[in-house]
Design goal:
With 320 residues, this protein is α+β, with helices and mostly antiparallel strands. It is built from nine helices and nine strands.
């Protein structure tokens, strides 16, 4: 009688319609999938069929294992078990796609998502049948939601790969003026709307840590002008511990950033714009770094005259 009850569960119209519709969709998608891959039958046909059979067997086993006294009257624990199982199998699937199938040649855009959705569809069929057989139809659709986690490893892996493929940001460098000692400094008339902020500067190219300096300037003066005025004033007062602005190849190129808070991205500071347009406010911290001399002057052309610089934050010493 108990066995008859189990088989009667499979005759519920809802589960029959669900399985038939899902199976039909999977067959159609499989046909489309096969056509999208060049030479699928000769190269991947047997592998695909074997893997599909294996996926359905594993899904069946998960359904059988989930039906035990440990989860009796504990629907939440049972659902968590199914979710963890799907996450583990999904992680294995992500690995197999890259090793066993070699990404199917990686010639079709979006193929990995197509493939994982196809495997999810085929996995749900045996799982839904076995779960309904033992437990009835009441929670079968809820339990089938576990397969969202089957999809998760593929999404995370793809997201990580795309993030790593983003090229580093290229910033425009600012060349320290060679005649900075003769350039006009900040006049008394300009010293209004003042803000006090911190400059993090390494004294020379070999410094391991930034040195921190307090600076004060008007918000409407260009940052580059304020920077070379600060360097001139500091070096005149500290001749034994100057901030180096010139190397073997001439005056350094510089790049500037606002030091971000933990939840913000690094913001580039344009030396040709005034402080307020760069977002420099009271107690802001500006990182001043020398850029590498990556392009020799005589090799520059009209479209390749800006060295690139990749920002890496370092520790800094106490305020000067």
């Amino acid at each position: 009688m108990q066995l008859k009850k189990y088989f009667m569960n499979l005759l519920e119209p809802e589960i029959l319609v669900f399985i038939l519709v899902l199976l039909s969709v999977c067959i159609i998608l499989t046909a489309i999938f096969r056509r999208r891959i060049p030479d699928f039958k000769s190269i991947y046909g047997s592998k695909f069929n074997s893997y599909l059979l294996g996926v359905m067997i594993v899904s069946s086993l998960i359904g059988f294992v989930g039906y035990n006294q440990l989860f009796a009257d504990h629907i939440q624990l049972e659902f968590i078990f199914y979710q963890l199982s799907s996450l583990a199998v999904g992680s294995l699937h992500c690995y197999i796609y890259r090793t066993f199938f070699r990404k199917f040649g990686d010639e079709v855009k979006g193929l990995e998502y197509f493939f994982v959705l196809l495997m999810i569809g085929y996995s749900i069929i045996p799982f839904a049948l076995i779960y309904t057989f033992f437990n009835g139809i009441q929670f079968v659709f809820l339990m089938s939601g576990q397969y969202v986690l089957f999809f998760l490893p593929t999404v995370l892996n793809e997201t990580f790969n795309r993030a790593m493929a983003i090229p580093p940001q290229i910033y425009r460098t600012w060349h320290f003026p060679e005649n900075y000692k003769n350039l006009p400094g900040v006049t008394d008339e300009e010293m209004k709307d003042l803000v006090v902020f911190t400059l993090l500067i390494d004294k020379d190219r070999n410094a391991k840590n930034y040195s921190a300096y307090k600076a004060k300037g008007p918000t409407r003066i260009d940052f580059g002008r304020l920077f070379y005025s600060f360097i001139l004033d500091y070096n005149e007062k500290n001749s034994e511990s100057e901030i180096k602005v010139e190397g073997e190849n001439g005056f350094y190129d510089w790049v500037f950033f606002l030091r971000p808070k933990w939840y913000e991205s690094t913001k580039y500071v344009d030396a040709d714009l005034p402080l307020y347009m760069n977002g420099i406010e009271e107690n802001s911290v500006v990182i001043c770094a020398r850029a590498q001399h990556m392009i020799v002057e005589e090799n520059l052309n009209d479209n390749d005259n800006i060295p690139d610089f990749e920002y890496k934050e370092r520790e800094y010493d106490e305020l000067k």
